[in-house]
Amino acid sequence: MKEVRRFEVKKLLYLLAYVLLVSLIGYGIYRNLNKLPGVLSKATRAPEAIQNQVTLTKVVDGDTIKVLIGGTEQSVRLIGINAPESADCRGDWSRTELEKLLENQTVLLEDDSTQGDKDKYDRLLRYIHTGTGLNVNGKMVELGAAKEYTYDKNYKYKDLYVSAQNIAKQNNLGVWGVPCE
Hints:
SNase_OB-fold_sf, alpha+beta, 4 helices, hydrolase activity, membrane, five-stranded mixed β-barrel, CATH 2.40.50.90, transmembrane helix, two-stranded antiparallel sheet, elongated, 22% strand
């Protein structure tokens, strides 16, 4: 009887060891997903502290939106990116990609102390995040819907956006794809 019980305990210990091993391997794979190009990349992860939930009123183009802040409509220029103008090659596509990213989403704005509050066209300079944690500016670069753009000074997410752009270039995505005719 003791032999049978000892055998069952041994089987249970092996099973627990197996479950632990599989769990550790699975956790390691999950943590490494953040390092894979295009899969939960750091460029698309929101910071812990995000400010200013706003109401989106319009997507102007791939790097500019309009929002309501305190009952007043304001233009917002996305920091760190430059998208094609609507009349340019892939301009409509870029705007559509931004619309898709923001559709039915909570829109959150984040400022950056390294940049001014507004640009020369009186647009607020901000990063856009969604309530689901998406860094929209970075995602636009990752999709190839915009290029990384440093106006004057380096900004908070520059290294992440440059990495996202390199991936988009390597994969010939969006603006890095087949030239327009």
